[in-house]
Design goal:
The protein is an all-alpha fold. The protein contains 9 helices and no strands. It has 3 domains: 54 residues, no CATH class; 70 residues, no CATH class; 80 residues. α2 packs across α3 and α7 runs parallel beside α9.
């Protein structure tokens, strides 16, 4: 009996995957460290990934996209820690006053006032205000000068810093920051002149007034998104010039 030759079955194609290059592993590890250092919960972390790359998982990203995520974390104030005993950048100031100044510095960058939100730029600003070489070495009176100078900049650009008599001053300041960025977007023609905080919260975060009150984290997420829009517009305008 003759036999019929049967062609061997073709192997099933595996889905495309990125090669596990050491550089990719290092970049993903840095992103996870930055996420932890900046205290991002899972929802906010995924929202940041989606806003920057359109993806919600680092494993699906190219190396350039991973680099964009790292750049965004750095823009928000993250800096890699230096191992003690090895040459590198000095440890950033970590006392309460410095943390407050850093939060103001990053917020002012979202408002489009600070062009370089890096730690080095904050150190340089603090040095000019204090006359002290390192922010980490500053005493309370010197730190006060830095914070008051940053508050003055905020007020001059429409971000009210008066919290006297407020039951929840931190929430109010975050809300006012979002409102100030929104006003700048309206003035620049990026969003409609009819936009309000209520409509923006509804469109961006699905938060409907009288039914839901945005949390501090909601407001931080909104400020980051609006700040990104403002920075993108500013960059495009600079390029057009």
């Amino acid at each position: 009996m003759s036999r019929v030759a049967v062609a061997p079955a073709r192997p099933t194609a595996k889905p495309a995957a990125f090669a596990p290059f050491p550089q990719r592993r290092v970049m993903i590890a840095k992103i996870q460290i930055a996420r932890k250092d900046l205290d991002f919960d899972d929802g906010d972390y995924r929202a940041l990934l989606d806003r920057v790359t359109g993806l919600t998982s680092c494993t699906a990203m190219t190396e350039p996209q991973l680099g964009q995520v790292l750049d965004e974390f750095k823009r928000l104030g993250w800096a890699p820690k230096v191992t003690p005993g090895k040459p590198g950048k000095p440890r950033r100031a970590d006392h309460p006053g410095a943390k407050k100044a850093r939060a103001l510095w990053i917020s002012l960058s979202l408002l489009g006032v600070i062009r370089q939100p890096s730690e080095a730029a904050l150190e340089a600003f603090a040095r000019r205000q204090m006359g002290c070489e390192r922010f980490q070495w500053a005493d309370q009176s010197q730190v006060y000068k830095v914070i008051e100078a940053l508050k003055s900049i905020a007020v001059s650009h429409g971000w009210d810093q008066n919290t006297a008599g407020l039951a929840d001053p931190i929430w109010t300041l975050k809300y006012r920051l979002c409102a100030a960025i929104l006003r700048r977007l309206i003035a620049a023609g990026v969003v409609a002149a009819t936009a309000t905080m209520a409509t923006t919260l509804s469109e961006r975060l699905g938060i409907v007034g009288r039914v839901q009150t945005p949390t501090e984290r909601d407001l931080e997420q909104l400020a980051a998104a609006l700040g990104h829009d403002l920075a993108t517009h500013a960059a495009a305008s600079h390029y057009d010039d």
